[in-house]
Amino acid sequence: MQSTDSPIFKSVAVVMFFIVNLFALYLLFRGHNMPGGGFIAGVATSVAVILLSFGMGLEAAQKILRSDPIRIATWGFLIATLSGVLPMFFGLPYLTTFNYKAYELPVIGDFYIGTPLSFDIGVYMVVVGVITKVIFVIAESTSQEHRLVRIAESGYCARSEEPIEEDPLRKSEEVPIHPDK
Amino acid sequence: MIIILPVLIPLLTAICGLLVQKSSIGRRWFFGFSAWVQFGLAIYLVREAWVSGTQGLYLGGWEAPIGITLVLDMLSALMVGMATLMTLACTIYGFYEQKVEDKHPLRLPLIQLLLVGMNLSILTGDLFNLFVAFEVMLLASYALITLEADDWDVRQAFPYVAINIFGSAFFLIGCGFTYGLFGSLNFADIALQSEQMLADGEGSPYQVELLAMLMVFVFAIKAGAFPLYYWLPNSYPILPPALAGLFSGMLTKVGVYVLIRWLGTVMPHDLDFIYNVLVWVGIASMFFAVLGAVSRNFIRGILSFHIPSQIGFMLLAIGFFTPYAFAAGIFFLLHNIMAKGSLFLCGGVVTFLCGSDDLKKTGNLWVASPLLGVVFFVQAMSLAGLPPFSGFWGKYMIIREGIALGEYVLVGFALAASVLTLFSMLKIWLASFWTENPDVKPRVDDKRWRKMTYAVGGIAIVSLFMGLGAQLFVELSMMASEHVLDRVGYAESILTGREFR
Amino acid sequence: MILLTAILVGVLFAQSTYLILQRSFVRILFGIILLANAANLAVLAMSGDPSGKGVPIADGRTELSADPLPQALILTAIVIGFGVAAYFIALLYRTFLDWKTTDAGELFAKSTTDDSNSES
Questions:
Q1: Which of A22, A180, B334, B434 is 20 to 30 A from A80, comparing alpha carbons?
Q2: Which value does ipTM take for this structure?
């Protein structure tokens, strides 16, 4: 994806990236009893990342995530699952909540710490990872020609040896479906 | 506590597989080990259901009609056993099908996620969780169906994806309808309330019937019943054999399982119109699909067309709606999962040996590998329903119940469809194994096919055991059908805090 | 209000049926997205009047909050619909790159003579 030429948009995008992320964190941490939560916060963060990629180009946005978005999503998945598993070690059913209410914290106010929060953080990471990955893949494939196809071909084709039904169109010699022959 | 584990172990396995994406031998060992653990756990669950009957698990400690409930009874335990068995066999088969470095790194995690979806939809005790589980299962299957497809095959995924999204939308509407009608989504609660509603005379029985019909439509799409099966024979052959075995074995059968659960446990037992529709839909799908199978001449195509045909037998059994017919249907369901899956895997070995599964380009295999021939023959005859294999007992029970009910026309159709099944199975057998074809030289030098055959042979042994020792499995199916049809008992063991009877 | 929602659901269903029956897969995609939205609205409408139905869990103060269950259902369904739509778009895009068409008739026709399809 090309970065835009407009300097106004560029500088606004950078500032907005931080503001939207701050708002996303706010949504994440109030999500226990108020409107908000991991999913919405994740969507907000991914919107911020997409905005940044419009302003500064796709590479900048990928750099700011520091790793493959799918890895972020997987770690989030693991955190969410484990926060459900944790009570099982105490003989309680899966997903039982352990919650601790911290009163009167500075700036934040009343605040809940416990498995719901870690579950929400996991969901947040999953959503950020998946949405940004979807956007990155589609954006890359529109900027570089046939990137999706190259990914598919470089990797792993099916071991289907013959076409499902005979078709004169299909040129069987040019399809590299025998990686091990 | 233990009921959640069939969902949780595959989930954690899949996450670990996603974290370590580099293909290696150690990663394979990990997945194989996890599959064995799950299978052992499933056997323990069957024992648990045998000993202590229906029991629930309330996630997060929220009691039944409010929170998420998982329910274990005989039927769900047996289905979890079958799901894990098929996953185990297909995983091991997949190890030998491709070399370590050729493997797509996402395949194994996605198989585990598919298993999460299947196990959750089998074990769940409320309607919306069922919807979510179906979606998990379907999304994993969408990914798997296009994961290793080349550009020619990838378009065949469109009908599959489109019809399933369509079905999911109707499923969602059905959930909303149920909530509007009963104010609850818990199976046990719906079962009680629908009974209560009809007894009190408030709310028309037509509403319940309409709801049941809507859901039957949705589950019939998932199961691939007669007018809605066109997506199936084209999309399943594009899968690699290991995945095709898993898909054909389990995915459609989960639809049948949910249908059994829905009509047997959740809905009232006097929806005669729906049962009649189901019987005829079953007859139509077993007959038209088997005609499609006869017309095809490549192995995967024939086997794919057989799936709706066998689904037809199960729908017939459900449509008879007696406890014995339910037991017959459940027995047939269990038999069919193994037979269908292992036949697809056998087809994969044939493709591996001959380089093609077009019947004209195969042959000589009986000489090349008698073991594969025996495995294929056992499962093919079992599918066609010849004694003493397991398919015979399933069909025998269904047909006996049909004769007892006086439905001679239906029985005649079912027998005719069985003959056509036998015909198309013999077509594969003759062309691939028995015929001498001078153009074909089976690739027996590559020793991997042996191990693939052993993986299939494992299922074949279980299947043979099911046929020769049918007594045990018939008893299990009888118990399962008892558990499914006992609506009050189901509600009693789930909704513990209420008065009954 | 419920009547209005019901009418809206009907209109959405009609539109999505029309779109799904088109030949182009892009329109089918739009139809599917519309169908998911119609289904979500239908859940909202079918769960009835929100007033009077309290939160099923909390004791007391239930008059302040509407029935959360349909909303939870719809939220989950929206997320799932989002994932499915993303998958479908990616699949459509890949097919378009391979085949240079999204028309169902051309895609599944056996007798097309366009040779450029399996290059690229």
A1: A22
A2: 0.88
